[in-house]
Structures are given as C-alpha cells and as structure tokens.
Amino acid sequence: MKLAVIGTGYVGLVSGTCFAEMGNTVICVDNNPDKLEKLNKRIVPIYEPGLEILFQRNIDKKRLSFTSDLRRAVEESEIIFLCLPTPQGEDGSADLKYVFGVAEEIGKILQSLPNNEFKIIVNKSTVPVGTSTAVRQIIEKYNIENFEVVSNPEFLREGFAVDDFMKPDRIVVGARNPKAFEKMRILYEPFVRQGNPIFEMDPESAEVTKYASNSYLAMRITFMNELANFCEKAGANVEMVRKAMGSDSRIGKRFLFPGIGYGGSCFPKDVNALIKTSEEFGSPMKILKVVDEVNKNQKQLLVKKVKEHFNGNIEGKKFAVWGLSFKPNTDDMREAPSIVIINQLLDSNAKVVAYDPAAMENARFYLGDKPEYAQDQYSALPDADALLILTEWNEFRNPDFDKIKSLLKNKLIFDGRNIFDPAKMKELGFTYYSIGRKPVNN
Ligand SMILES: NC(=O)c1ccc[n+]([C@@H]2O[C@H](COP(=O)([O-])OP(=O)(O)OC[C@H]3O[C@@H](n4cnc5c(N)ncnc54)[C@H](O)[C@@H]3O)[C@@H](O)[C@H]2O)c1
Ligand SMILES: O=c1ccn([C@@H]2O[C@H](COP(=O)(O)OP(=O)(O)O[C@H]3O[C@H](CO)[C@@H](O)[C@H](O)[C@H]3O)[C@@H](O)[C@H]2O)c(=O)[nH]1
C-alpha cells in the first residue's frame, strides 16, 4: 500500500518504518528542517532500540523516504496517518492546533487535486473524543466527499516502540465506513498474524479507549506509589506486597512498580486531558484529579528524604545523579521526575553532577548547564555527599559497589526506583533509602 505519515516523531518514525518493513511504500513528512536534514542523511534522530536497522534497510529498499512536501505525500498515498503532537494546553486539555492545522492543509490539497481518489485520513495522535468528527468537518469545508477519517490510536511504549508496533497486544480502529475498515484490516493483517485482535468500533469509542488505557495505567502506578508511602510508615515492604498482589491473575504483575512518579510525554498530559474532557461532558472523572495530584507529590518525595537525612539543610552539598530520562531505554526527558528533583536540589543551593546513558543532550534542553554532566556513571561520584538513582537503566543495576564506596564522600544512596536489595546494602555498609521499604542505616 502507499502510505503517508505526517509527523516523524517517536510515533510517526516508528510507525512509518514498521509499515515500510511490511512491504508498504511510506512517505514521511515533517516540517522541522533540522529533523528532516538528519533523516535524509540517514540519521535516526531519536534513541529507540531496534529502529536503526529497519530504518536503514527500508531506505535502501526505497520503501521509506522523508520530505517536507505534504502535497506530494497526500497525492501519492491512499492512507495518510497523522502522527502529530497533541501537547497539554494551558487549561489541561489537549492542544489540537497541529492536528487541525494539518487537516486544513490536507483539505486544501485534496480540493486542488485533479482526480478524486478515495483517501483515508488516520488519526494516530492521541486526541479527545470528537476529534475525528472535527477533522472530518474541516476537510468537508473544502467540498471533499470521497474520504474517511479513521481513529487508530497508538499504544507503543518508548524504549520498546518497535517491538510494541510489530507485535501489538491489540489494534483499535474507529471508523464508520466499511471500505475504510477493510483497508485498515489489510494494512494491519501482517501485524496480527500471531492472533492478537483488531477491535473495530466507532471513532468516539476508539478515541476514549486510548485515554482510558493510559489513565488506568497511571492510576495503577499511583495506587502503588501511595501504597508504598503507607508501607514505609507502617513498617511493611512494598516489594513483597507488590509481588504477592501481582500473582493474583486478576491484578497481574505488570505496571505495579512504585517509584518517583510517572513521567513521559503521555501519562501526565493524557490524564489531564481526560480530566478536562470528562468535565466538559458533565461527567467528571474525579479519581483522575487525585491521580494527578498524588503523582505531582510523588516527584517531590526523594528530595524530602534527602533533606530529612541532612536535617533540612543541603546548601553546598553535592549530589551525584544516575539517570535522567523519564524511564530507561529512551532519551526522552518530557515530564521526567529528574527535572523536578534536580531543580529542587539546585534551588536549595546544592550541586548536582548527573549522568544518563542516552538523555544527556535532551537534558541540557530542560536543565541547561546548571547541573554538571559526567562522562560516565562513576565520574559523577567523586566527592559527592550522596548518590541519587532516578532511572532504572540496566547498567546501574549491578555496579561496582567498591568503586562507589571509594568515590563517594558518604556511603549514602537514595534509590527512587528500588533497584537494590536493602539486605545487600546493609551488608555492603551503605545507608540506603528507597521507596516503600524501611531505610537501611549504617
Ligand atoms: N511518544 C509515545 O510513546 C506515544 C505513544 C502513543 C501515542 N502517542 C501520541 O502520538 C502523538 C505524537 O507523539 P510523538 O511522541 O511522536 O510526538 P513528537 O513530538 O515526537 O513528534 C511529532 C512530530 O510532528 C512534527 N510536526 C509538527 N507539526 C507538523 C506539521 N505541521 N507538519 C509535519 N510535521 C509536523 C514535529 O516536527 C515532530 O517531528 C501524540 O498525540 C502522542 O500523545 C505518543
Ligand atoms: O510500574 C510502573 C510502570 C511505569 N512507571 C512509570 O510510568 C511512566 C510511563 O512508562 P511507560 O508506560 O513504560 O512509558 P511510555 O512510553 O510513556 O508509554 C505509555 O504512554 C504511551 C503514549 O500514549 C502509550 O502508547 C503506552 O502504551 C504507555 O505505556 C514512566 O515514567 C515510568 O517510569 C512506573 O512508575 N511504574
């Protein structure tokens, strides 16, 4: 099939590349000249495991190309995917200016085309209920009839994006036109061979499914974060509770890890967008307001522990930070807890030396040169008063503890991700604070 993908960010680039891998011809459009320059020089502009090899192969096979020419992409494609940003607006709602702006451009382009071939415009961006209808109305203004707007929300996770796209748990397609369902079925058939379902529904239900999934997962993590804080006070160990809870098949093991609050480009903004739309429809989801509030507080938790340890004064102290990205295996810093934590430390006149395996360049954008950036995990440590672990990258899980001891000023670790065993830390002689477990004093 001939496809266009508008917006080559995490979703657009991964979707475009994976569709090309299945034999489709994909033209990717972006309006960011720096990004396009990189893509056309065959440089993958994001860190996403497994993407590089598919990207190079499909460019070689001439199935994947990049352009700023929206007109050509629309003209040459049967299906046009919108993978555009839908950031949080000032009032919490999703800002749809990118989606609506491109819909206007597509309307104009379709109006000016000599032929009148059937086109499908697919919304892959996360958009509030009713957006498919709004996009349809924008395109109809240009007297176009032979088209359909489909809602096909994306569920990939950063860091596992290629795997998630290639082997999705499910595909959701919201449409009204049988011809559109049929085309989408053909396009996705290679991805569902292993037996995972395509759920076909109306566009409104598809749009709600995306927000419901993200908000539910955010709520689950938030439940665990509050439970962890309670366990700590009550003398229980949240990791033991988590494992025992998760073995109930009705609960399940995944997404029960407590930490320093969820971040990323999706959960925080999508929870807020659903709060807003549910209010607009007169059916407020009160539970999500609490989720958002508890999550914001959870991002403050680690610095509270640090300050308590130092009797309230951390002025002039130096902290080594391992991990900046909002989770491992990505360079994405959007809404990362590290931003809140590092700013709190700096505001208290402490010094910060940080290291991350992939996110240092993006971190500079959010944190500037206020923290120092170390070349590797150990060079962040010399003379630091404590080590803070903010992202659970695998390379932090089994470090050289003797080296850590010899480099740090104090044998003191604040672990926001529970990557170490408290008993082992006791044995190694560290004072160790984690989430939802008793502190280890040495
Ligand atoms: N990142 C994820 O893991 C993820 C997963 C599922 C869904 N989503 C949703 O998918 C959407 C895209 O997210 P993302 O993380 O890929 O965003 P992103 O910011 O990484 O990428 C968006 C791209 O769109 C481009 N763009 C903006 N305006 C444009 C225009 N007028 N014409 C052409 N290109 C334009 C930008 O330059 C950028 O490259 C959002 O709605 C998001 O909520 C994201
Ligand atoms: O048990 C857990 C699991 C995750 N997190 C945190 O939750 C956030 C989000 O993690 P994750 O869901 O893995 O990352 P994203 O790449 O943001 O993916 C989410 O958001 C995407 C964008 O909508 C969806 O497509 C995905 O299905 C959804 O998982 C991160 O800060 C994690 O540290 C926890 O604290 N505990």
Automatic annotation (TrEMBL):
Pfam families listed in its UniProt record: UDPG_MGDP_dh (PF00984), UDPG_MGDP_dh_C (PF03720), UDPG_MGDP_dh_N (PF03721)
Keyword match NAD: yes
Catalytic activity: UDP-alpha-D-glucose + 2 NAD(+) + H2O = UDP-alpha-D-glucuronate + 2 NADH + 3 H(+)
Sequence positions that bind NAD(+): D30, K35, T86, T126, E158, K269, R334
Pathway the protein takes part in: Nucleotide-sugar biosynthesis; UDP-alpha-D-glucuronate biosynthesis; UDP-alpha-D-glucuronate from UDP-alpha-D-glucose: step 1/1
The UniProt record lists the keyword Oxidoreductase: yes
Any GO MF annotation of the entry: NAD binding
Keywords: NAD, Oxidoreductase
GO biological process: polysaccharide biosynthetic process; UDP-glucuronate biosynthetic process
Domain UDP-glucose/GDP-mannose dehydrogenase C-terminal stretches: 320-422
This enzyme's EC code(s): 1.1.1.22
Catalytic class of the enzyme: oxidoreductase
Active site (UniProt): C266 (nucleophile)
Annotated substrate binding sites: F155, L156, R157, E158, K210, F255, L256, F257, P258, G259, G263, K327
Family the entry assigns: Belongs to the UDP-glucose/GDP-mannose dehydrogenase family.
Name of this protein: UDP-glucose 6-dehydrogenase
Annotated organism of origin: Melioribacter roseus (strain DSM 23840 / JCM 17771 / VKM B-2668 / P3M-2)
